[in-house]
Amino acid sequence: MSAVRLPPATRRPGRLRRWAKAWVSPAFIDFWASHLDPTWSLERPLARIVGRRQESHDAVTLLLAPNRHWRGFAPGQHLSLGAEVEGARISRSYSLSDLLRADGRLSVTVRHVPGGKLSTHLCHHARVGEVLELGPAFGEMTLPSMPTAPLLFLAAGSGITPLMAHVRAQAAQGMPVPLTLVYSARTRADLCFAGELRGLAAAHPNFSVHFALTREVATATNCINATLASDESLGRVDEALLAARVPALADRIVFACGPGEFVAHARALLATQVREFQAEAFTPPPRVVEEGGHVQLTLAASGRTLEVPRGMPLLAALEAEGIKPAAGCRMGICNTCACGKRSGTSRDLHTGEATTEPLSALKLCVSSAVSDLVIDL
């Protein structure tokens, strides 16, 4: 039989793909296709890094060219990126920070997390030409194509990245409704996109931006105010700042995104004071810990039985035993680690609620065992 050169992936399975899958495994086909082009695969979404830009002292934007298996996204969503680091395949979730370009390229902004293997690789070692695995886009913090109410975006830390995609989407439409962005960071060196945001504010009367710097100090003079621009303030986002910077606050649809503490603070300030409030936290929720002891965890598919601590996230407990289920955000957002629960009592670590009902989508990263469990792994 003569060798068959596989074409680039297409969105719909063709006759050649169906024939190939009937005779050989997708992994075998992908292995040989990658020798022709690293982004060729039978089914897997892959992307090549085609550009990188430093956004702050500890964050980079990667410009990615995906293959045809990737299905696109809406501003405000995230995706999982996978790469091989130190001989192991690692996947984590990151935000899409720009609109999908006309040439199909997309941008992901990654902030370095000390000790984080994948963020260290992407921020410091990944180079143009490297191929990454892509997961489908996910996340519910999206807007209708043409919003009808004024908007308020509250961002802190990495929370700016999905909101930046929204800002760019609104700018592409000419800022059809009033939009205010309040962006909290420790210092100016931590700010991403500051120059672009100021440029958009100058170009669009309907858009304003304010930077709240929580750890900035005076450097040029003993007079702190002399070091601050007109769109900057020192300290946390609070009621006084919002009253001064956000007109018609009660009419706003609010999106808040950032560390859990920041989101909780924003919710307490605004949830009952505005037209609508949506939020996503970029840090795991507080962990509800049971009173000591261990329970039995049975993996139905393999028949393996483990002893795991009560109160520990099931994903962490499995990884401690050398079992590595597919995982992404580790915050209960992306559903990558979800699996079925057949029996037993589990606890949702977001809410503290325990449930004895069988579940079709037990999120391992934010669930713990209260009693013996049987899960579909």
Automatic annotation (TrEMBL):
Chain ranges of the 2Fe-2S ferredoxin-type domain: 295-377
Taxonomic superkingdom: Bacteria
Domain FAD-binding FR-type positions: 42-144
Molecular function GO terms recorded: iron-sulfur cluster binding; oxidoreductase activity
Record-linked PANTHER family: NADH OXIDOREDUCTASE HCR, OXIDOREDUCTASE-RELATED
Annotated protein name in UniProt: Ferredoxin-NADP reductase
